[in-house]
Amino acid sequence: MSSAIALGGGLLQATGRWFLDTLDELGRFSLLVGRTFRVLPRRGFPLLETVRQFEAITVRSSTIVLITALFTGMVLALQTAISLARFGAKPYTGSFVGLAFVLELGPVLTALVVSGRVGAGITAEIGAMQVSEQVDAIRALGADPIQKLVLPRMIATTIGLPMLTMLANVLGILGGLMIASQLGIGANFYYQSVINVVTLPDLLSGLIKTVAFGWTLSMVACHQGLSTTGGTVGVGRATTRTVVVSSIAVLVSDFFLTKLILMF
């Protein structure tokens, strides 16, 4: 009986500790968000660093994003055509592939790929600076590390992710066309089915979500980097947390953003 009580008490204590740690983490994240928006209109905007981060985040991520989108579109078209053939609707594979990519697959897949590559890279870079006291050196020189480190990465990711999503949408639909043409679906009919079904509001709804995804994963990555402790081992742990937390945040926010968009 006493052991059961001790076990229950230990479980309750662990739950309470986890809850308090989570609240503390959310509080520090909120403070970072507030400080980032506060330095946005400040003089001395780091334009060159923002351009450099845009090149590192957007341009260097394009290859893996486009490969992922291309083969996802091919697999989706293959599975869709086979499934729709049971109902005599195989020619409308393009409509399904187009809507699926523009509304969900393009934004979500791009965000997940970027969170794994870019989010981990941001955390590792800032985390290494944090444990080596370079962030403290920036403060000692009278500069703001939020403006120098966080703001350029946040803007570059928020702007770059919608662009990558547009490219992913195009490559995904083209990948579907490659498979559809092999299954007897005319290229012109495939193209027309995509154009007739996918509307501008559909495209904009997906791009609006990627703006939120880009902002979220960049802020999570910067927060984890600035919170890094424990040397190189701590950098590895922070990088892992960034990939996990940002991926979950993208999937959860995707649901709520979709619900919100559908209300209008």
Indicate the topology.
Layout: H1 2-39, H2 47-59, H3 62-85, H4 93-131, H5 134-140, H6 145-182, H7 187-197, H8 200-226, H9 231-262
Helix pairs in contact: 1-6, 2-6, 3-4, 3-6, 4-6, 4-7, 4-8, 4-9, 6-8, 8-9
Describe this structure in words.
This protein has 9 helices and no strands. It is mainly α and 264 residues long. The longest helix has 39 residues.
Question: How would you summarize this macromolecular structure in one to three sentences?
Answer:
By secondary structure, the protein is an all-alpha fold. It is built from nine helices and no strands.
Which H/E pattern describes the elements?
Answer: HHHHHHHHH
Decide which structural class fits the backbone.
mainly alpha
Distance between the termini: 57 Å
Approximate helicity band: over 70%
- Low-pLDDT ranges: none
Number of strands: 0
Any idea what the radius of gyration is?
22 Å
Q: Provide the β-strand percentage band.
A: under 5%
The 3D shape can be described as elongated
How many H/I helical runs?
9
Mean pLDDT: 89
Task: Please tag this protein with its features.
single chain; 264 residues; mainly alpha; 9 helices; 0% strand
